[in-house]
Amino acid sequence: MPLVTSSDIIITANEASEALGLKIANEMGLEFTKTTKKYFTDGEIYHSFPEKIAGKDIIIVGSSHNDSSHQELIDLIDGCHFLRARTVNVVISYLGYSTMEQSKPGSNEIPKGITRTRQIFRARPHFVAFIDLHSEAVLHAHGGNVHTQHIHTNELIVEKIKELQLQNFVLVSPDYGRSKWVAKLAGLLDAPHTAADKDRFAMDETMVGQVASVVNGKTAIICDDMIRTGGSIIQTAERCRQAGAVDTILYATHLVLAGDSREKFKRHGIAKIIGADTYPGCVTDELLEVYSVAPLVASVLNRQLKIRI
User: How far is residue 234's CA from residue 15's CA, in Å, rounded to a whole number?
Assistant: First the structure.
């Protein structure tokens, strides 16, 4: 792609991700463009751009965490093509159904992580970036005509852990599936790591069996890509304490915190969770310490679009 000037770029977002879109725009030195959105009595939704987008390079920031946000993201992509945008570039901060990237043999279940991502790709964006995917399988759910990038936040995670200034800590993965990722973080921090023994026995139910004694006498930093209901990560924290950990700190990029998860954390003595602002509505409060991925995303977009200010 040739160099473009900042005046050629419009950055917008679906409604759920406007706060993150604004942060990214500020990092890039751009004005954030909020689409006009109205609701009709029968439930239909009107969208329009407040300015002409023909010939422009459009950036859409969007989480697809629920059906309405997913559909709005697709509407915006298709709308940009209809209005003759030059390129459509998408940043999916949180991909809904991302844990459903495969179907168990004989189950007849729909792997919605794949099928929903295909719906986004079929809207023909030129570039799609995902942040800390649960599985990279979704990156290949297109016919080879979409440029994709997986944005890893490892450097941001390492930076946040270093800010804690802990002298004696160990990184813990809640299961073996995330252990390679946690091992990579541990290598960047020159710290030990281990993984919990976890089994899933229902859609939202897991059982964590044990954690190695390497946590004995140390602060256990339990790292995962997301916290949804909190069940497995709370169990992991309890097993770490039983194995001799002097303290536990929870980290996850995507802070979904569904249902009564906040109350669960309080009941189990979890006082602080560190995570990113990828999931809509997550802000720092008495439980959460939230940092922004905006600087990292802005740097990726600057390289992708080769912006000349």
Answer: 32
Residue with tokens 């599936």: 177
Which pLDDT score is estimated for 269?
86
Q: What is the pLDDT of residues 93-129, one digit of tens each?
A: 999 999 898 888 888 899 999 999 999 999 999 999 9
Interatomic CA distance for residues 261 and 243, integer angstroms: 24
Mean per-residue pLDDT over the chain, rounded: 91
**Residue 5, pLDDT score:** 78
**Reported CATH class of domain 4-152+294-308:** alpha beta
Q: What's the rounded Cα separation, in Å, for the pair 236 and 238?
A: 5
Extended beta strands in the chain, E state: 4-5, 9-13, 36-39, 45-48, 57-62, 87-92, 127-131, 147-151, 169-173, 193-195, 198-202, 205-208, 219-227, 247-255, 273-276, 288-291, 307-308
Q: C-alpha dihedral over 110, 112, 118, 119, to 10 degrees?
A: 100
Q: Does domain 154-291 have CATH number 3.40.190.10?
A: no
Span 274-290, average pLDDT = 96
Contacts of 62 (CB under 8 A, 6+ apart): 13, 14, 16, 17, 69, 72, 73, 76, 90, 91, 92, 93
Map tokens 């993984």 to a residue. 195
Q: Which of 263, 292, 2 is nearest to 156 (CA)?
A: 292
Q: Measured between alpha carbons, how far is 131 from 60 in angstroms, rounded to an integer?
A: 14
Of 226, 229, 237, 285, residue with least CA distance to 261:
229
Domains 4-152+294-308 and 154-291 share a fold: yes
Q: What share of the chain is helix, strand, coil (3-state, %, to 5)?
A: 35, 25, 40
Q: Where are the domains of the chain?
A: 4-152+294-308, 154-291
